[in-house]
Amino acid sequence: MFGRWLRHAQPRLATRRQLTTTTQALSESSVSAAELDKFARISDQWWDPQGAFKYLHTMNAPRVQFIRQTLLAAKPTLRGLRAVDVGCGGGLAAERLARLGLATLGIDAAPESIRVARAHAQADPLLNVAYRETTAEALARDAPRFDAVVSLEVIEHVRDAAQFVRSLVELAAPGALVFVSTMNRTPLSWLVDVALPEHVLRVVPRGTHDWRKFVAPAELRDMLRAAGAEPVDCRGLVLDPLRNRCHLVDCDFGLLRNAGVQANYIMAARKHG
Question: Which residues have a Cβ under 8 Å from the Cβ of 204 and sit 6 or more positions away?
Answer without folding.
Answer: 52, 54, 55, 197, 198
